[in-house]
Amino acid sequence: MRVFLAVVDAGNGSAPNRATWRSASLTMPGQPDIPLSVISSLKARLDHHRDELLLRTEAYLAAAAVALEAERPEDIDLDRLAGDRELEARTLHAWLSFLLVGGAKPVQVSGHYEEKFHSSAAGQEFIQGW
């Protein structure tokens, strides 16, 4: 993962420009801010978590098969099913949603831009795109 911070002409011609990044962080509505100072360790933790989950794929798919074989998959206690198999309930829920098992519905993607911006943002010509 790479994050680039750039400083452009502040409108003062050829005079040097300088910026101080204080408490720089990644932000997303409804989520806590992530300080850039912890990005490397966060990525390492996420990579490790991903690797652990991939090693357990067979167990999650076996649990999904149990749910799928049930007469009414939507009535299965998924937390108990996960606990009985020493799986993370949240991850089992995600697998079942992905596989559309147990009354899960396809993910609806909304709120995204469907057309490219053709004008610059905030008067900055370099900010264009989706």
Structure description:
The protein is mainly alpha-helical. It has a domain at 60-109. 37% of the residues lie in helices and 3% in strands. It contains four helices and two strands, in the order ββαααα. It has a two-stranded antiparallel sheet. Helix 2 (57-69) packs across helix 4 (89-99) and helix 3 (78-84) crosses helix 4 (89-99). The mean pLDDT is 81.
Oligomer: single chain
**Beta-strand fraction estimate:** under 5%
Question: Which runs of at least 5 residues are low in confidence (pLDDT < 50)?
Answer: none
Rg over C-alpha atoms, rounded to the nearest angstrom: 23 Å
Largest sheet: 2 strands, antiparallel
Order of helices and strands: EEHHHH
Please report the distance between the alpha carbons of the first and last residues.
Answer: 21 Å
Number of helices: 4
The count of DSSP E runs of length 2 or more, i.e. the number of strands, is 2
Shape: elongated
Structural category is: mainly alpha
Estimate the mean pLDDT confidence: 81
- Bin the helical content: 25-40%
Biggest sheet strand order reads 1-2
At a glance:
The protein is mainly alpha-helical and 130 residues long. It is built from 4 helices and 2 strands. Strands 1-2 form a two-stranded antiparallel sheet.
